[in-house]
Design a protein that fits this description.
Layout: E1 5-6, H1 12-22, H2 38-56, E2 57-61, E3 68-74, H3 82-88, H4 91-96, H5 99-119, E4 126-133, H6 142-157, E5 161-165, H7 168-176, E6 180-187, E7 192-199
Length: about 200
């Protein structure tokens, strides 16, 4: 990953804005869009895993321009426990989401955590927590560059790579990169589905 830019702490605010812009058409917006100042709450939602991965994993962009963002951790710290959230500073943006947003989003968060625990129990893996590209830079290969860098690390270390998505078109994209679907779960309260995928090193 030496060819990528590893984010500094001062980059996290802009990085969360990049992710909000990248996911303005994401089904997860349903948990926020009917609330006052929904965009700030949506931004806080993405700041949580960014802040967490900055402490317990690694956060990258293609360059210092932050055209796209990728955050990942090792599997043993993929679960955002209360203590880890406190130590990483992720609890503060979690509070900024507001009680209603937290209530709305918890079925999604809990489902992913449950699936991950079942799918990967006792296994070593890398967890791709976030990946997104600013709309102004989409279609220019930045997402591919980010994802390939983590795939290369997975291959080099011979450690599987695990991720989740709530966007059906992304499932086919990840399958193109060698991922296989493990689960597909409806989430009626958010009018969406969640998929979990795993890529085994060759």
């Amino acid at each position: 990953m030496n060819q990528l830019y590893r984010l500094q702490k001062y980059d996290l605010t802009k990085a969360s804005e990049v992710l909000v812009n990248a996911f303005m058409n994401d089904p997860l917006l349903n948990a926020f869009k009917d609330q006052p100042n929904f965009k700030e709450k949506y931004k806080a939602f993405y700041t949580v895993p960014l802040t967490y991965a900055f402490k317990y994993g690694e956060v990258y962009a293609p360059t210092k321009q932050l055209e796209g963002i990728m955050a990942w951790t090792t599997g043993d710290v993929a679960e955002m426990t209360f203590g880890r959230m406190l130590r990483s500073g992720a609890m503060l943006p979690a509070f900024r989401m507001g009680m209603q947003s937290q209530k709305n989003i918890m079925p999604f968060v809990n489902q992913l955590a449950s699936d991950r625990a079942k799918n990967m129990e006792g296994k070593t893996f890398y967890y791709l927590a976030l990946i997104g590209v600013d709309p102004a830079y989409q279609g220019q290969g930045y997402g591919k560059t980010l994802l390939n860098s983590l795939i290369e690390k997975s291959e080099r270390d011979q450690i599987p790579l695990y991720l989740e998505t709530e966007t059906e078109k992304n499932v086919a994209i990840y399958q193109h990169f060698g991922f296989n679907v493990l689960t597909e779960t409806p989430l009626p309260s958010l009018d969406m589905k969640a998929w979990t995928l795993l890529r085994q090193p060759s």
